[in-house]
Amino acid sequence: MFYNIKMIDKNDIEELLDAWFKTKEEIAVLEKKCEKYKKYCEKILDNLEENSISSNDYSLKRINLTKGTISKKDVPSDIWKQYSREVTYPVYYLKAKKTIKPKLKTKKKEKTED
To answer: What are the b/e assignments for 33-65, b being 16+ CB within 10 Å?
Structure first.
């Protein structure tokens, strides 16, 4: 599914975005499943009072990391300007458009004169 960018048409774009959207949905399902396994392993580690477990084929090690952050509102602006770092990167938002249901046509009532 590689396209010639210079000759891409609306059908190609539809196919590309559809494939991407479906893949994102599959990833979301797998991430949810992965999170379930992680929580289950966490409970096992807590129950064993250990930070690692292993089997014949796998080993799992839990490490607690600490990351320091600072918020712009927590420091004077001159310190923020001097030490803050800006990182620019592309972000893509892909979502399905809501399908618009066709409105049912209703017959107008004819006015009758009395």
So the answer is: eeeeeeeeeeeebeeeeeeeeeeeeeeeeeeee
- Tell me if 62 sits within 8 A of 52, measured CB to CB: yes
pLDDT tens digits along 51-76: 999 998 899 999 988 988 888 999 99
**pLDDT at residue 109 in the model:** 52
* Cα three-residue angle 99-105-111, rounded to 5 degrees: 155
Neighbours of 80 (CB within 10 A): 14
Query: What single letter denotes the amino acid at residue 106?
Result: T
pTM: 0.64
Cα gap 80→72, rounded to integer Å: 6
Domain boundaries, given as residue ranges, for the chain: 7-83
